[in-house]
Amino acid sequence: MRWRPTGAPVSTSADRVADTAGSEVRCRFAPSPTGYLHLGSARTVLFNWLWARHVGGQMLLRIEDTDRERSQPELIDVIYESLGWLGIDWDGEVVLQSDNAGRHAEVIEQLLATGWAYRCDSTAEEIAERNRIAGGPPGYDGYNRDRDVSADVEHVVRFRVPEGGSTGWTDLIRGDISFEHANLEDFVLRRRDGSPMFIVANAVDDIDMGITHVIRGEDLINVTPKMLLVRAALGVEAPLQFAHLPLIVGEDRKKLSKRNGDVALFNYRDRGILPGAMVNYLALLGWGPPDGVEVRPIREIIELFDISAVNQAGAFFDVKKLESINGDYIRAMEPAEFSQRCSEVLADEPWADLVDQSVLAAIAPEVQTRLRTMAELPSMVDFLFLAEPDMDDAAWQKAIVGNESASVLLDAAVAAYADIEWSATALHEVTLAFGESAGLKLGKAQAPIRVAITGRTVGPPLFESLAVLGRQRTIARLVAARSRI
Q: Nearest CA to 245 among 325, 305, 326?
């Protein structure tokens, strides 16, 4: 991973931008309200947004809210909140798919009238039984294609797929893709309850919104020929560009899902991932900048982004890499911004009222260089504000109980720290000296001191921490730890 600081020169794909339709490009993100935005959807909306902004086009937002149970206002608000956290905006008014129900019904009736659709009253059980008797493959058998099913009986409406030929397109990521019509069953356009299926609703809404580019996951490739068939049946000649993104996979190389991965976007926000870092990392899931510099400002990602350069292979979601990028973003924050962020994080701690802002400001520069996520902050600085350190038992056992030199070192520290200049430099020098007297290197000599003071084996630099904590509290903790041995 390489980092290019803000302000350094960056090459742009000016020729590609000039060759693109600019403002005529319309990408869309069409999520269903689920109560959370998962990582796959977050990456999808980001790639739509990056491409639209890269070519100077439009990014449109449509909420697919036709499922009434899953379309409560609070669930839709999660989508807005998620996009706001990521810093993704959109053009024009939000379209609610439910507002277009009448239009969807009208189109289905049009397809019935023109012979592109027909009514089907066969149940799933009846279809399965016919297939069993005929020894045919599973799926709809075309039984009702030439039957005049009455509108008065319970039925679905199916699309009449042409019997010969094929439907295909040139995918911006995967190249030429084609589906033989013989392998496509007559798919359902309208359910028995009268509600439209995803395929027809999306096809109609994309037509009405003037969508030119559909960027979505590869798991929807098999839906694409059906959408194209509906468009053709409606006489729509306007071209529609598709780009099917590789799936995001976990360590087992299987699609990231609730069962095999942490998929909710806000879980990472709550674990201390910064929005800029999350956007930067999501942009790398299937795509990479041509110069190899992965961590960079979003404006540069927009300049360099090319949807045709996205890989076809599954994109591995690497939490360690995400945290590493997040650490880069933390270190790049201005001191005032970082201090403000620290205050916000600590405000949720039960000991928040004990936080001394001057003490926090003093230790902040040391902490900033070591954090990978903001969620690590409380355990790094709590020892400065609590009356006694929150002692980690494993750390105590390792650094003090299991260390035969611990008593000697703690006694030496109490004696040496009593009257020296109280600065990180002086504390470092005197600790190095009595450690060498005990035949120990500095790392071994300071281990029991760190645990006695902070309660943990890792944290901000020890001597800078002691300087901030103060002589009296430092010695009191050393004496308390010594008395427990």
A: 305
pLDDT along the chain (485 residues), means of 10: 39 38 81 91 97 97 82 87 97 95 97 98 94 90 94 97 96 97 96 94 96 96 97 94 95 70 89 97 97 96 97 94 98 95 96 96 96 96 96 95 95 97 97 96 96 96 97 97 93
Distance of CA 86 to the CA centre of its chain: 9
Alpha carbons 309 and 383: distance in angstroms, whole number? 49
Give 15: exposed, middle or buried? Use CB within 10 Å, 0-12, 13-18, 19+: exposed
Amino acid at 81: E
Cα of 443 vs its chain's centroid, Å = 38
Record the pTM: 0.88
Beta bridge partners of residue 255, listed in sequence order? 249
Q: Which SS3 state, helix, strand or coil, does residue 220 take? A: helix
Q: Which two tokens stand for residue 267?
A: 């879980």
Q: For residues 73-102, b (16+ Cβ closer than 10 Å) or e, as one string?
A: eebbebbeebbebbebebeeeebebeebee
Looking at residue 265, its amino acid is: L
The answer to whether the Cα torsion of 289, 291, 293, 296 is positive or negative is negative
- The reported pLDDT for the residue numbered 72 is 81
Predicted confidence at residue 253, as pLDDT, reads 75
Token digits of residue 158: 């199916």
What token pair was written down for 94?
């939000």
229 exposed, middle or buried (CB, 10 Å; 0-12, 13-18, 19+)? buried
To 5 degrees, how large is the angle CA 289–CA 372–CA 449?
Answer: 150
Alpha-helical regions (H) of 351-470: 357-368, 377-381, 393-396, 406-417, 424-437, 442-454, 462-469
The stretches of 210-334 forming alpha helices (DSSP H) are 224-233, 265-270, 275-283, 298-304, 319-332
> How far from the centroid of its chain's Cα atoms is residue 35's Cα?
15
The HSE-up count of residue 211 (CA atoms within 13 Å, CB side) is 26
Rounded Cα–Cα distance for residues 22 and 18 (Å): 8
As given in the structure block, the two tokens for residue 373 are: 């996520």
Alpha helices in 37-147 (DSSP H): 39-55, 73-86, 101-113, 124-134
Catalytic residues: 258
Give residue for tokens 């009268």. Answer: 194
